[in-house]
UniProtKB/TrEMBL annotation, chains A, B:
Keyword Nucleotide-binding: no
Protein's UniProt keywords contain Cytoplasm: no
Any one Pfam family match given in the protein's UniProt record, by short name: ADH_N_2
Source superkingdom: Eukaryota
Enoyl reductase (ER) domain sequence ranges: 20-349
CDD domains found in the cross-reference section: PGDH
Natural source organism: Oidiodendron maius (strain Zn)
Name of the molecule in the record: Enoyl reductase (ER) domain-containing protein
């Protein structure tokens, strides 16, 4: 009999969450889904891939400190996007069958008993004419890929010859955005947290340059990397890196803020204060917030995104990267690794071993 | 024999400049202009009004710390916009004559000997069909008025029913911008530094409300003043007030940064760090820098601005306010009063008494 484990938000973390303390993998109580019948109008499914996202950290808070995302109630499962494999369906469902893979959103757990009211949270994977590996639909062809695609065309408005600087450039959004910007003829520079990531960007993903912000003086490194300055800064990290980027932006430069990963684990009084905002005036900068909620404006890019990026991934001119955490028992560590910036590309909990078990 | 005094930048101030130490009124050496002939192709004129602007503080620095404005060389006269009265012209000049008032830009001093090469710095006042008091051409009908007018239509893009919050709202730009926004059907709120200024805005200029940021908790006061939040924040001050404004902005709010008066007197390491820039993402804010350099985009509004604002000032529906400093001997104090925020409306050195002397 398989277990049914669930990843619980057990207490509000101080700083980076601690596995086993703030986030706990526990055995789910009650009868195991695979030993029961599907609920009327529902189905039973097994998790294959689970998306880990920085926004999870913002949800690990109390309701009075809630931001844009609803807080996880303490003692309940984290929720996230996932790909599940259908095991048993109620006879009233004709739109999918056992063995189908569905994109969903639900608790982070091994098995799902999906009631009729939760069925709309699950949809078949998009058409996949090139037979791409399904996990890509949580990354490049999922919401982070859409943020990169729509973010580039809607906000960055790429111009051939301009220089774009991207922070967390090897992250889920950054590594795709950089490749898309490169296709548009921009000079693409990245800021990352290790020499290994610098190598990945410049050798594997065709970035024009990258710096490790943990080594040396970032201001100096960026001045050397971009002697003609930077026209666009796409920010995924906030904090001091953002302040330095404002310093090196060119006249009429543009900032697109998409994340503040360096600040998510800090209380407001410890968050980094940006001191050089007067440069917004003297350099006549524009600064736009890009929230990764898939609003109508973003979904308007979806069809074009799927068509183009599927083709580019298939022909090898777009390289989506994943950081897999293997095994449900490691799920808390996987979330924490992401929050520490250990991942390259999209962070995904990979449960295919369990699915492929006999 | 009249004196010819000049306002000298004598040393780089620490913080707010000190009259008599950092800024000195001194007797200009050499023969007095009124006792000499005009230079070939030039003229001799007397200052009537001199504009005092916050940007003067940014120019009181050393070249290595220069920002967008060129620093004043130590030991030389401050320069600024002015209105002068022509005394004597060289016979080669036919475009204006003694007694004419000219708009100019030059050293802050009582009398000007304008050489042929400096003549293009001076132009006749714009047509003035309603016979408005000339000082208005340094304020509402000068560059600050153009910033307010073009800033509103080009950047704020006013929408009837929206709420705009303006800091330094009784200042040279703020008090005009608020009146213009009100004409467009916006709810107009101001942040100022005294109860007297609150009164002026709400009783005299028809603002919907205003708060004194020096009294009580600004965050709380603004929440009470704008229970439905704020759609646009027009910032003239930067610093902590800016941080609070970001907090209370509505979803999809817009920030237009036009000045950072609270920070001009501080070295970078003492400048206030804005900690809540992650709200730019979650509220999908846009933030635009409006530098008060009269670029082409701004000058495109000039004709319309003169036509409309002259009419509105004449019919009393637009009230331009001035803070006059009287007498050249008080010019250093006038600059410092402006930098301390003592002014209401446009800060102008008023030398009409001297001009009107027999």
């Amino acid at each position: 009999m398989p277990t049914n484990r669930v990843l619980i938000f057990s207490q509000v973390p101080q700083g980076v969450p601690i596995p086993g303390q703030d986030l706990k993998v526990v055995e789910k109580e009650g009868p195991h889904p695979t030993s029961t019948r599907p609920p009327p109008g529902g189905f039973i499914a097994q998790s294959v891939y689970v998306s880990f996202d920085p926004s999870m950290r913002m949800r690990m808070t109390t309701p009075d400190k809630a931001g844009v995302f609803p807080p996880y109630p303490i003692g309940t499962a984290l929720t996230s996007a996932c790909i599940v494999k259908v095991l048993v369906v109620d006879s009233s469902i004709s739109t999918f069958k056992p063995g189908d893979l569905l994109l969903g959103n639900g608790p982070v757990q091994e098995y799902h008993t999906v009631t009729a009211s939760a069925v709309p949270q699950f949809t078949p994977l998009p058409p996949n004419p090139f037979g791409l590996e399904p996990s890509v639909f949580l990354g490049a062809l999922g919401s982070t890929g859409l943020v990169a695609y729509a973010g580039l065309y809607h906000f960055v408005k790429p111009k051939r010859g301009e220089t774009i600087l991207i922070s967390a450039a090897s992250g889920a959004i950054g590594h795709l955005l950089g490749q898309l910007a490169k296709r548009e003829g921009m000079t693409v520079l990245g800021i990352v947290g290790s020499d290994e990531k610098v190598d990945i960007l410049t050798r594997k993903l065709n970035f024009d340059g990258a710096v490790n912000y943990k080594k040396g003086d970032l201001h100096k490194s960026l001045k050397e990397l971009a002697p003609n300055g930077v026209d666009v800064y796409f920010d995924n990290v906030g904090g001091q890196v953002l302040e330095v980027a404002i310093d090196i932006l060119n006249q009429n430069g543009r900032i697109i803020s998409c994340g503040a990963a360096s600040q998510y684990n800090l209380p407001i009084e410890k968050q980094y204060g940006i001191r050089n905002t007067f440069l917004i005036i003297s350099k006549t900068l524009t600064w736009t917030g890009l929230a990764s909620r898939p609003g109508a404006w973003m979904l308007a890019y979806e069809e074009e995104r799927q068509k183009n990026m599927q083709k580019w991934i298939h022909d090898g001119t777009m390289k989506p990267l994943n950081s897999f955490t293997y095994g449900f028992e490691n799920s808390a560590d996987g979330v924490v690794d992401l929050l520490k910036g250990s991942n390259v590309g999209k962070a995904i909990l990979n449960l295919t071993d369990a699915v492929n078990e006999p």
